[in-house]
Specification:
five-stranded antiparallel beta sheet, 5 strands, globular
Length: 62
């Protein structure tokens, strides 16, 4: 599982909030990612450009 961190405020979440990448999917060239907060209470679904623009990859955990 991959861990990401917010670069700046996004969708009501504060800068520095950590998210787990739960799911990745691609349909006709459009990638979609589902992320959950560190405490697993909230989830967001974003596209690839939003992921690259607003998140920093921290680490991969097994």
């Amino acid at each position: 599982m991959k861990v990401y961190k917010l670069k700046k405020q996004f969708n009501g979440y504060k800068r520095g909030t950590q998210f787990y990448l739960v799911s990745e999917s691609e349909f006709i060239g459009v990638k979609e990612f589902v992320l959950r907060t560190e405490d697993l209470t909230h989830r967001i679904s974003i596209n690839e450009s939003e992921l690259l623009k607003n998140f920093i990859f921290l680490k991969e955990i097994f």
